[in-house]
Amino acid sequence: MLLLYKAYLIENAIEAACMTAGEKWIKFTIDYHENSYVLEIENTGQIDFELINILYEPGASTKDSVARGYGLHICKKILEKYHCIFARL
Fold first, then answer.
1. Model confidence, pTM
2. Using CB atoms within 10 A of its CB, is residue 83 exposed (0-12), middle (13-18) or buried (19+)?
3. Fewer CB within 10 Å: N-end or C-end of the chain?
4. Average pLDDT over residues 8-20
């Protein structure tokens, strides 16, 4: 299950970066901080400010297609099951 959430996040990061004009990049960082592992994913993708607070709701998506918008919601649920924190910065 934890591997599935990583696949969703990586796919989401790639798609967001590909939708950006100009230079495209994705940065993955894994760190150990205060007895916890921290995975950070950054990319050149842009998110409309109005979407930030609803991105983890089922069906919320920055993409214009049917049956999208469930990946981040599923990631959050998987991490909650394992008592992990899913945060956006």
1. 0.71
2. exposed
3. C
4. 86
